[in-house]
Write a structure and sequence with these properties.
- The chain is mainly alpha-helical.
- It has three domains: 30 residues, no CATH class; 252 residues, no CATH class; 95 residues, Tetratricopeptide repeat domain (Serine Threonine Protein Phosphatase 5, Tetratricopeptide repeat, Alpha Horseshoe).
- The protein is built from 22 helices and two strands.
- A hairpin with a 2-residue loop joins strand 1 and strand 2.
- The radius of gyration is 28 Å and the shape is elongated.
């Protein structure tokens, strides 16, 4: 247990996540994935998971069988058709792989339903993302081979001879091992954030790995075991195919068994990767409502805008209750400077004085957004409170409320962050993020704001309001940590 100063208060903090805790027992992160190994291997079969695996087997027999026929036909049409069918099949499998990662990273311990597919892009784009991410990860190998080809004068015989050199083979092997080592993190970033820019950035990939080196190495070893098992199954199927003498029947059995086993291993791998991120969410800093990785360095604060001459006139007119003149002045400022937060604040004050709820909502949201963009979390929270006091029933932009809660938490204003999260859940009870907002509210009140009774009320309301949410086991775990009244 370490000690850290929060203002003038000395508190104990968890040595890993630096969150305030009262005792080691109170801070109970999720069990490491290696402690869940029996459950992890059963994960793909939970609920109706076994049916999904069987469906993939039948789909593989049809699509890959047709693709094989297309390859046998030859010609441009046959080859293009075979490639298209394989991409569609891969897209179906990989899109579900991404979904497993995303749901597991959110703490869901049950396999999700099928990924929603609204068009051909939902089948082709996941495959393209997967292939490009793999290519980027192994780009050092490609670059090294291209350099060798250039050194050989683009002579294939010389190039082939150079590839037999022990030194060249050692470099290729090392680069290949590095690529294999970082590929799971690239796929994890892709599955969680659905952004190729994160998965294609070696700095981000290595940065995330270095935050959790031991846990990642354990997951990497588990991935190697899964891949080895998959290769063993593939070799066994090859021998079975030879024993049956090939033919249609042997091909159907081979495609069915191979696809179901591969799909099973892929689901297990996706769950391990996603759960790894959930297990290490405090170290990684990923579990935030904006769903973006925390930057390595704070973003530069935008410079204060120059004072517009009409801004003084606007506030002077507002103070004198010359509302029309004040509105004209503030609008004049925004015409020249669309992102001027003070003008937006003036128009919010004007709408509040007029009792204009819709105007207060519009300009209040704009001012909050501009304040958060320039890093003025305190100013944004003050305005948020004023809006709530003036218009209690007013529902602000949910994205802004989530961003405000995130900013307050990063500024260590934990109670204020919990209040905003609770208000978000109350204002938008049907939003898919409402259960998670209540969970984070209870977690903050318990572990950081030292208000166990308020945390209990929030978490009990969460279970009552959303009894079927995927966060139920985690809510129950938090409730167990709250001492009896």
């Amino acid at each position: 247990m370490d000690v850290k100063m929060f203002g003038h208060v000395k508190v104990e903090v968890c040595p890993k996540c630096r969150d305030k805790v009262l005792s080691v027992a109170q801070y109970q992160p999720p069990a490491p994935f290696w402690n869940r190994l029996p459950e992890i291997f059963q994960y793909p079969f939970q609920d109706d998971g076994w049916m999904r695996i069987m469906v993939i087997g039948f789909v593989a027999v049809v699509l890959l069988g047709l693709a094989q026929i297309g390859m046998m036909m030859g010609g441009i049409i046959g080859l293009m058709g075979a490639m298209g069918l394989r991409i569609i099949y891969s897209g179906l499998v990989i899109s579900y792989f991404y979904l497993v990662i995303s749901k597991s990273e959110a703490g869901n311990l049950k396999p999700p339903e099928w990924a929603s597919i609204s068009g051909i892009n939902d089948l082709t784009w996941p495959t393209i993302q997967f292939m490009l991410t793999t290519l980027v990860v192994f780009m050092p190998v490609v670059v090294f081979l291209f350099i060798l080809l250039g050194v050989s004068g683009f002579d294939l015989e010389t190039f082939a001879a150079m590839l037999k050199s022990p030194a060249v083979l050692a470099v290729l092997g090392l680069l290949g091992l590095v690529g294999l080592a970082i590929l799971p993190m690239g796929l994890l970033l892709l599955g969680v954030f659905r952004s190729v820019m994160n998965a294609w950035n070696p700095v981000i990939i290595f940065g995330q790995i270095m935050k959790i080196p031991k846990e990642y190495l354990a997951a990497l070893g588990f991935m190697i075991i899964l891949e080895t098992a998959s290769v063993i199954v593939w070799i066994a199927l090859r021998f079975m195919d030879l024993a049956l003498g090939g033919g249609f029947f042997a091909g159907v059995i081979k495609y069915f068994i191979n696809s179901t086993v591969d799909f099973y291993f892929l689901i297990v791998a996706g769950h391990v990767l996603g759960y790894l991120a959930y297990q290490c969410r405090f170290q990684l800093g990923w579990w935030h409502d904006t769903r973006e990785p925390r930057p390595a360095a704070p973003a530069p604060v935008a410079p204060e805008p120059q004072v517009h001459p009409d801004l003084f006139e606007g506030f002077r007119s507002l103070k004198g209750r010359a509302f029309e003149r004040a509105e004209m002045s503030f609008q004049s400022v925004l015409k020249d400077e669309p992102d001027n937060p003070e003008a937006a604040r003036g128009l919010f004050d004007l709408a509040r004085e007029r009792g204009d709820e819709s105007g207060a909502a519009f300009w209040g949201n704009k001012f909050l957004n501009l304040s958060l963009r320039r890093g003025d979390v305190a100013g944004a929270h003050t305005t948020f409170q004023e809006i709530r006091n003036a218009f209690p029933a007013l529902a602000l932009d949910p994205r802004i409320m989530i961003a405000l809660a995130k900013g307050l938490r990063e500024k260590e204003n934990y109670y204020e962050a919990a209040t905003v999260l609770r208000q978000f859940a109350v204002s938008y009870p049907d939003d898919s993020r409402a259960p998670k907002a209540l969970y984070q509210c209870g977690e903050i009140l318990l572990k950081q704001a030292n208000q166990p009774e308020n945390a209990r009320k929030i978490l009990e309301y969460l279970l009552q309001r959303y009894p079927s949410t995927e966060l139920v086991p985690h809510v129950q775990n938090l409730l167990k940590q709250i001492p009896a009244p």
